[in-house]
Amino acid sequence: MAFCLNLNTNYYPRCLTTSITRKTTKPALSPITRSHVRSLQLTVKSRAAISADSSSAMAASNSVRVAAAQMTSINDLAANFATCSRLVKEAASAGAKLLCLPESFSFIEARDGDSVKIAEPLDGPIMKQYCSLAREFGIWLSLGGFQERGSDDEHLCNTHVIVDDAGKIRSSYRKIHLFDVDVPGGRMYKESSFTEAGKDIVAVDSPVGRLGLTVCYDLRFPELYQQLRFQHEAQASFTKITGQAHWEILLRARAIETQCYVIAAAQAGKHNDKRESHGETLIIDPWGTVVVRLPDRLSTGITVANIDFSFIDSVRARIPIAQFKQRPDKGLEREQLSQMLPVGVGADKDMFVWDFGLKGSLSTSGNLRLYDV
User: Fold this and answer.
1) pTM of the prediction?
2) Which residue windows are transmembrane per the record (predicted)?
3) Is 103 an active-site residue?
4) In this model, does residue 12 exceed pLDDT 80?
5) Do 225 and 343 share a domain, yes or no?
């Protein structure tokens, strides 16, 4: 399993994550200390030739190459598409089967309200361009933070879209957790004033595994990733002040908790006079180790790594948290998700503990706190 995260920050990093999972019957017990990921640092972008027909072959292999892109989007659709085209071309040339583009890859507004004005349905001309790009280079695309038209002229949906190598939309996820905050020393940001919250947890099969889709602020709600990991058997996919302080820490935490790879694609640098993003595109393994990152935190480019399925099996065999996880018959409802708040974590604890707002209690077994609902 792996997470692919898209990031686009003003005062908070907006991100997209994708996690990849694969069922195995006999875990491979490869040493934790071995070199389990071969990585390739690149400074721009590119192409992978696989087809949906090769899905079974990919699932049977021990590794698959993925890429995460970093860029500085602006309020120019054509310019951003040109940048994304270069990144897709280079990822495909590097042999990546999936490229994760950061949140707001297609557009970042310079004036309030511009994002709502350019918002389109998923079958509109903007998304069709990116579908054509995936088809041209034969690569799956994880497109986080697309401005999808909302139910009225004053709202949009922050939508994470998965496009296959034939240029077809395989799935889409509308961001559930909207970012409403007043950052000390900064300005108030209220995403809910122009964005409609999604309601559904989404997972989709792909040639690189099962992808669980998330966006940005979702990163701070680990229970969503637990649902994707244990309910949908999926990895999760995501997209300045809080970014600098929390970005890498949260990503590594999600990798360790879910025992998945995390692929974090970020926006970076100055988009306009009012907006700046932290950057820091990373790929993290299930042990919580950063296996590759862009050498320049603010550069435009891609980073590539092989997702090693045998290493995932090895980590899960050594720390078999899945056998302690309760797996309800059905996923949590939107109302329950909204009540999930972190209530405590200690240095001596192996897992975060959440108050689900549900009838029941929490029990503790050793260093692992379990849900008893």
Assistant:
1) 0.70
2) none
3) yes
4) no
5) no
